[in-house]
Amino acid sequence: MGNEFLGLISVFVLMACVALGIPIAFSMLLTGFLGYAYFAGFDTAISQLLLVGWHESAENFVMVCIPLYILMGFIVSNSGIAKDLYAAAYKWFGHWKGGLAIATVFACAGFGAITGSSAATASTIGSLAKPQMDRYGYDSKLSTGCLAASGTLGVLIPPSLVFVFYGAMTEESVGQLFMAGVIPGIVTVLVFAGVIYFWCLWNKKLSPTGPTFSWVERWKSVKAVWPILLLFLSVIGGIYAGVFTPTEGAGIGSSMALLLTVLMKRMTKGLFLKALRETVRLTAMILAIVYGGILYSRFLALTGATEYLVNLLLGMEVNKYLLVIALLAIYLILGMILDVYGMLVLTLPIVFPVIIGLGFSGIWFGVICVVMAEVALITPPVGVNVFVISGVAPDVPLEKIFKGISPFFLGELIVIAFCIAFPWMATWLPETMLGR
């Protein structure tokens, strides 16, 4: 086990780099490069660094849609449409117990369906919802916890960047992954709404009952959000019907987003340039992680560590569902120290062959991975969404935000349990797609 041991040691070196504060992309690049230099020589390491990673990442056609979906999200995010979306959700659900928080969940679901970004969803809807909830006397534990958790819906409801990333890493159909996220996404929204409703019933001091709006006002508010509905149905409906591929859908979606915002007079040259800058920055971050992940994964495969771990896991005489639960526990731990993309790029080369070898669907496991990514976004100490909401509500201590997240964390575990117990939640829609 000489070479395999070297590969396993590199995992600890990688974790040490991350612990020292080196970004995950550069940690994987450094570890993979040094490993190649030690194992195969400096010249081989240089050739891998300069040629192989860029060649494989650029050759993957799925990667083309990442900047386009990001651009679509930032165009919508910068256009101010989120205000109309939140106003509509508020008029429909504001009169319920905990109604403003429930409206926030639905607004995050709608906005996340377009942006595909949890941080953008949490910050944009948070800046609208937090002042309203403060105005009506909502407990800050409920308001901030709800915002941080609901923001994660952006990575589950399609089109999701994490699904694109997973599809690129595993060569699963991105279109089928998008469809697989629809039912679990709806279930998550309903679970979060239920958590808020029953939490507020149990502790009546958390929130008052909001005002009731007439049916005329409610339906009028829906008219204001037709661009989001049109954009979502066009992109996801077209992919489902087999009219175009997810990559083509990304181009159509970003073009439609720009056209709609221009026609609505919500887009200016300055806002468009801002969206482009944000797109370039986020795309560069994601592709850097992909590049680092390719180099490091190839090094692990070269040492035989990947094959060794896969065979070790497949050879364990335990119930396959217990093994899946154990893998999810590992994801939960990794989510405490790594971001979503780093977590996936580090684990999928090992975990995905195990899942397929156990007879599970790669599409189903993609949904499980994305739900675990949601959990990672609200898990301390990294908890990206918690820090995003802390920026929106600087007067609320981080400890209080994490405390407010606890019921939603349990809600996420319920969704995972549903997905494991009822795999059809993730597989039914992909199986009914046209042109799949």
Automatic annotation (TrEMBL):
<protein>
    <submittedName>
        <fullName>C4-dicarboxylate ABC transporter permease</fullName>
    </submittedName>
</protein>
<feature type="transmembrane region" description="Helical">
    <location>
        <begin position="36"/>
        <end position="54"/>
    </location>
</feature>
<keyword id="KW-0472">Membrane</keyword>
<dbReference type="InterPro" id="IPR004681">
    <property type="entry name" value="TRAP_DctM"/>
</dbReference>
<keyword id="KW-0812">Transmembrane</keyword>
<dbReference type="GO" id="GO:0022857">
    <property type="term" value="F:transmembrane transporter activity"/>
</dbReference>
<dbReference type="Pfam" id="PF06808">
    <property type="entry name" value="DctM"/>
</dbReference>
<dbReference type="GO" id="GO:0005886">
    <property type="term" value="C:plasma membrane"/>
</dbReference>
<feature type="transmembrane region" description="Helical">
    <location>
        <begin position="61"/>
        <end position="81"/>
    </location>
</feature>
<feature type="transmembrane region" description="Helical">
    <location>
        <begin position="146"/>
        <end position="166"/>
    </location>
</feature>
<feature type="transmembrane region" description="Helical">
    <location>
        <begin position="321"/>
        <end position="338"/>
    </location>
</feature>
<feature type="transmembrane region" description="Helical">
    <location>
        <begin position="350"/>
        <end position="373"/>
    </location>
</feature>
<feature type="transmembrane region" description="Helical">
    <location>
        <begin position="178"/>
        <end position="203"/>
    </location>
</feature>
<keyword id="KW-1003">Cell membrane</keyword>
<keyword id="KW-0997">Cell inner membrane</keyword>
<feature type="domain" description="TRAP C4-dicarboxylate transport system permease DctM subunit">
    <location>
        <begin position="12"/>
        <end position="425"/>
    </location>
</feature>
<keyword id="KW-1133">Transmembrane helix</keyword>
<dbReference type="InterPro" id="IPR010656">
    <property type="entry name" value="DctM"/>
</dbReference>
<feature type="transmembrane region" description="Helical">
    <location>
        <begin position="224"/>
        <end position="243"/>
    </location>
</feature>
<feature type="transmembrane region" description="Helical">
    <location>
        <begin position="7"/>
        <end position="30"/>
    </location>
</feature>
<feature type="transmembrane region" description="Helical">
    <location>
        <begin position="280"/>
        <end position="301"/>
    </location>
</feature>
<feature type="transmembrane region" description="Helical">
    <location>
        <begin position="408"/>
        <end position="429"/>
    </location>
</feature>
<feature type="transmembrane region" description="Helical">
    <location>
        <begin position="101"/>
        <end position="125"/>
    </location>
</feature>
<feature type="transmembrane region" description="Helical">
    <location>
        <begin position="249"/>
        <end position="268"/>
    </location>
</feature>
